[in-house]
Design goal:
heterodimer, B: mainly beta
Chain lengths: 114, 107
């Protein structure tokens, strides 16, 4: 069974940093691209970033480019999102999702507030 | 960037009704589109992939159609558990983009 479990969310002040993690199991992690998708409270879904299976290709939404960094460790079956220079508008539930966005984790809440 | 225009934004229907939700892409995306269902407080769940293929375990009352720029999700006979918010997602090119969502409510 495919499982994706996010962690690392919490309350952070504007301008602060946070690192999200996503632990994957139930499939060959190193064979799949991975994504981060977020959802602000009461709003729709927004794709944030994708990384290819070998980390050769990385893409970001314009809204996070230059501030967020996606990475992965295939030996640890883990996906990461380093978030710097956080803003109030980054407040959202962050989901990791596999490949063509077929399986999703349960999400982790990031709140940016003073 | 490819824009996905989803309609309607909300829909009121009764159990047993047939409903259709539409997504229009600002440029051709072949069949690189998925449909998702999200219930309050839960992660989205994929219903349809490649525009018209039913995800394993999803009831057959859900169906998808379309290619290029026009796509539809149809629920043939609404069940109580189908009242939720639905999204389309194009993954033809980056940035991937979601439709704005359709909230399906009980009439």
């Amino acid at each position: 069974e495919v499982q994706l479990v996010e962690s690392g969310g919490g309350l952070v002040k504007p301008g602060g940093s946070l690192r999200l993690s996503c632990a994957a199991s139930g499939f060959t992690f190193s064979s799949y691209s991975m994504n981060w998708v977020r959802q602000a409270p009461g709003k729709g879904l927004e794709w944030v970033s994708s990384i290819s299976s070998s980390s050769s290709y990385i893409y970001y939404a314009d809204s996070v480019k230059g501030r967020f960094t996606i990475s992965r460790d295939n030996a640890k079956n883990s996906l990461y999102l380093q978030m710097n220079s956080l803003r109030a508008e980054d407040t959202a539930v962050y989901y990791c999702a596999r490949d063509m966005v077929d399986y999703w984790g349960q999400g982790t809440l990031v709140t940016v507030s003073s | 960037d490819i824009q996905m225009t989803q309609s309607p934004s909300s829909l009121s229907a009764s159990v047993g009704d047939r409903v259709t939700i539409t997504c229009r892409a600002s440029q051709g995306i072949r069949n690189d589109l998925g449909w998702y269902q999200q219930k309050p407080g839960k992660a989205p769940k994929r219903l349809i992939y490649a525009a018209s293929s039913l995800q394993s375990g999803v009831p057959s009352r859900f169906s998808g159609s379309g290619s290029g720029t026009e796509f539809t999700l149809t629920i043939s006979s609404l069940q109580p558990e189908d009242f939720a918010t639905y999204y389309c997602l194009q993954h033809n090119s980056y940035p991937h983009t979601f439709g704005q969502g359709t909230k399906l409510e009980i009439k």
